[in-house]
Amino acid sequence: MAFEGLSERLQKAFSGLRRKGKVSESDIRDAMREIRLALLEADVNFDVVKTFIKNVRTKALGAEVLESLTPSQQIIKIVNDELVKTMGEAAVPLNKAPHIPTVIMMAGLQGAGKTTTVGKLSKYLMDNDSARPLLIAADVYRPAAIDQLQTIGKQLNVPVFEMGTDVDPVEIVRQGLATAKENKNDYVLIDTAGRLQIDEKLMNELKNIKELAHPNDILLVDDAMTGQAAVDVAKGFNEQLDITGVVLTKLDGDTRGGAALSIRAVTGKPIKFIGQGEKMDALDVFYPDRMANRILGMGDMLTLIDKAQKNYDEKQAMEMAEKIRENSFDFNDFLDQMDQISKMGPLEDIMKMIPGMANNKALANVKMDPKDIAHMKAIVYSMTPQEREDPDLLNPSRRRRLAAGSGRPVVEVNRMIKQFNQSKQMMNQMSKGNMKGLDGLMGG
Ligand code: GDP
């Protein structure tokens, strides 16, 4: 799987931090060194790595992280945000022409996946924009390219315009565009010739096609498996053709991921799509945030951190943590905590976001719908202030009184007290074991 090595190395850097309760500047420097090596090993461009590390370090050494109770989570968040930024923040859609047809010119080296991607993109447009595309076969140097495009056209039921291999590609494009206008095709996808490497003749031909067709998008189809070379190719094509975006192919393969992380930063041009397989539906819009999640191997953990940060009052959290450490967490805190958790949304959803949580047997029994929370609160409200602060006072006769006071059966009172004790114990372990408990839950 792509990014596997990078994911593993980054996880290692974070777990070094996770083992500590609080982190020092030197811990952060160690982690930065690990992250830097991880990126370089993943074939990320050297300058990109330099900027990346500089930005992450500045933020990570900020007071919020050093004073935070959850420094490793904060740093994961900072790294994630920087990954997203490096890859360009938001997905960049295709440009659309004010009048039909929208013209998309595809360029790239031989074998990058250009012809395949023309097919995939036409399918994408048909599925998502009810498009009626026309494909133009302008790769006249590789005879098989035209056959290949026709096969794809048949498979997808998309018309292919071709004039064989003896006509100048610019002329083919001219006539192809005229045909598209006649037939009122709303999209035209031009499959151009590739070479083994960038050469002047190819670039001149592509420039001529560009001048004639005024494409709304010039997409470079670039092979992620080639790592740094893919970045150089993107740089070369962009300098010559001023491309509007990149389709990064073969991300399903065993690529180290460097190209995905470097192209935007090096060329200033967005990756618009990624290819993740040979089949016609294996094309996806490139979302920098989702890619960052994938690289960090965190699933939706980051959404959870985000939610927790938005809803958690840091001061209150500090006090809570202090109580957990002193083992003086009581039923008043339990009430507060339930309020905090309910603010984050349905508990099942929160649980599902934590990697490994779905398989956690201990937690499978924790059911908490809003009604349960209301019942638990009713039971706590029936306690005397002394009982709330000292749950050990809750002997069987007091429990019967709570049941009567809250209108809940005694078994439920018992279950809640048991749950309270369990979670108290778990939190206490986590705080002592420096998050080890949570690591276990997270399958780490
Ligand atoms: P072109 O010379 O650039 O037109 O390249 P082709 O479209 O002929 O693709 C070259 C090879 O790469 C073919 O075997 C494709 O099936 C394969 N290919 C293209 N895109 C992808 C992709 O995203 N993933 C994988 N695994 N293979 C791909």
UniProtKB/TrEMBL annotation:
Catalytic reaction list: GTP + H2O = GDP + phosphate + H(+)
GO MF annotation terms: 7S RNA binding; GTP binding; GTPase activity
Source taxon at top rank: Bacteria
Enzyme class: hydrolase
Domain annotation SRP54-type proteins GTP-binding: ranges: 101-297
Alphabetical keyword list: Cytoplasm, GTP-binding, Hydrolase, Nucleotide-binding, Ribonucleoprotein, RNA-binding, Signal recognition particle
Physiological role: Involved in targeting and insertion of nascent membrane proteins into the cytoplasmic membrane. Binds to the hydrophobic signal sequence of the ribosome-nascent chain (RNC) as it emerges from the ribosomes. The SRP-RNC complex is then targeted to the cytoplasmic membrane where it interacts with the SRP receptor FtsY.
Subunit structure, interactors included: Part of the signal recognition particle protein translocation system, which is composed of SRP and FtsY.
Family from the record: Belongs to the GTP-binding SRP family. SRP54 subfamily.
Protein name, per record: Signal recognition particle protein
